[in-house]
Specification:
By secondary structure, this protein is an all-alpha fold. The chain is built from 22 helices and no strands. Helix 1 packs across helix 3 (74-105), helix 1 crosses helix 13 (240-276) and helix 2 (59-69) runs parallel beside helix 13.
């Protein structure tokens, strides 16, 4: 079994490259395709993501847990894997029936049905991708190398073939190819682990996975109500341009969120395996570290975005996206809310078979989000959707703290030390003058970001923070 440190480093590299490539490609795409083009892509993608949600039936998260449980039993692991793949394929066929019906009957989709069908390739690639298997067996080396290669090819294709705002179809192909197209490689690589010839197909029990996976589907469905539904409601109520502003504002915060969420991808299979083997102390240890690391990363990211939000938006998206700036400010705190709910819900409550508590908390947030969207979007457009999202994510976090408090293997005081707050405040005080002294937006970022990281790190070293100590040990070992 690979080390947690090694997996976190590998998945961190994968996530960082996943952050860097959008930072390089999205500014170019935003300028070429303009808010309306970006809005159209995101509008269609949001609909496709709902279909992916239906066809997945909660399988990806459920399957990670199932594969992780049987890491040491190859026969059961392979049997479960094949059963889940067959179930996913059957569901995929139903997904394409929905795609065809929507393309024929919905006028807004029918007029650009070719683009819609291109984006729908995400459905089949998600089905055959079996990312959940590689996460379950903790093969993060393969995931990382494959992702970097495909993202590089995708970025090159974007710069070579997307030249004008009329190149939406090409951009759609590249988007699908660079995000989920590499899942075809996943399926081929699966033969390294599974010998399809020795599988006893007559013993397979495909339907037994439907009920437990369905619980995760309910969770994912409700969660999506205040993620993808924001863009869909904006598209129908305000038009593609407002969707473009909302997409730009939220895309930037999701970059930071992706880095923190990558920790959970590593720790879910390991935590599940520890619980399966009865190692409660080991489980408590990795969860406590996960919460502290989440808090340590979230605070400075939020502070940095609140201070440098204007140059970040205008440099990475362009002057046409000035209306996205308030959306970025409103979404910055969401980094902390979502990161903590990921730890408490997915890393703690789900492995402990308390997924119903997670569903209840997410339901409360989703209901509030929909109601606020109906009230705020007609009056405030994308900004109204951002306010709804902020409220929804805070509500989910609050509900999880109240409902699941007795199941968390840590004390809040132990994982929420004041040094992170102090270090963040010091960092903010130091970089705030840069915003006023330096007038060039690019220079503000080139000076503010590395300087902020340096100040924050020095503060944590001064407080002898154990997380910084671990990072320092890794750095010293490599040099």
């Amino acid at each position: 079994m690979a080390s947690i440190k090694g997996n976190i480093i590998l998945n961190g590299i994968n996530t960082v490259t996943g952050i860097i490539f959008p930072m390089i490609t999205f500014p170019y795409a935003a300028r070429v395709l303009l808010p309306e083009g970006i809005g159209t892509i995101n509008f269609f993608s949001s609909i496709i993501n709902y279909i992916v949600l239906l066809t997945n039936l909660g399988i990806p998260l459920y399957a990670v847990k199932e594969v992780a449980k049987f890491q040491n039993d190859k026969i059961l692991r392979d049997k479960n894997t094949v059963e889940i793949i067959i179930l996913s394929t059957i569901l995929c066929l139903f997904g394409y029936i929905i795609v065809w019906v929507l393309a024929e009957l919905v006028p807004d989709i029918h007029k650009q049905s070719t683009l819609f069908f291109v984006l729908s390739l995400t459905i089949i690639f998600n089905t055959i991708g079996v990312n959940w298997f590689y996460q379950g067996v903790e093969d993060f080396k393969f995931i990382t190398i494959r992702s970097i290669v495909i993202r590089t090819i995708g970025a090159l294709c974007l710069f070579l073939f997307v030249k004008t705002s009329s190149d939406l179809l090409i951009y759609g192909l590249i988007t699908v190819g660079s995000t989920v197209g590499n899942n075809f490689i996943n399926f081929i690589h699966l033969k390294k682990y599974i010998d399809w010839k020795v599988i006893k197909y007559h013993d397979l029990q495909i339907l037994r996975h439907v009920n437990p996976a369905f619980h995760i589907f309910i969770l994912n469905l409700i969660t999506s109500l205040y993620i993808h539904l924001n863009s869909i409601m904006l598209g129908f109520m305000q038009g593609d341009e407002e969707v473009g502003y909302f997409t730009a504002g939220t895309r930037i915060t999701h970059i930071g969120l992706a880095l923190i969420s990558s920790i959970g991808i590593v720790l879910l299979p390991r935590g599940t395996n520890l619980l399966q083997n009865g190692d409660l102390k080991g489980f408590e240890s990795i969860i406590s570290k996960s919460v502290r690391l989440t808090i340590a990363l979230s605070f400075p990211m939020i502070m940095g975005l609140m201070i440098l939000g204007t140059p970040v938006t205008l440099v990475f998206c362009g002057p046409n996206y000035a209306d996205s700036i308030p959306i970025l400010y409103l979404n910055a705190p969401v980094i902390l809310f979502i990161s903590l709910t990921n730890v408490m819900g997915i890393q703690v409550l789900y492995p402990k078979n308390k997924v119903n508590l997670v569903i209840l908390s997410v339901t409360g947030g989703a209901i509030g989000n929909i109601i606020l969207n109906i009230i705020l979007i007609p009056a405030y457009g994308a900004t109204g959707a951002a306010i709804s999202t902020l409220f929804a994510e805070f509500s989910v976090l609050l509900f999880q703290i109240i409902l699941g408090n007795s199941y968390y293997p840590f004390k809040w005081k132990a994982v929420f030390p004041s040094r992170y707050i102090i270090a963040t405040i010091v960092m903010g005080i130091v970089i705030l003058p840069i915003h006023y002294i330096v007038r060039d937006f690019i220079l503000q970022l080139l000076i503010g970001i590395p300087f902020g990281v340096l100040i924050y790190g020095v503060c944590l070293l001064f407080f002898k923070d154990d997380i910084m100590g671990e990072i320092q040990k890794i750095f010293i070992k490599k040099h």
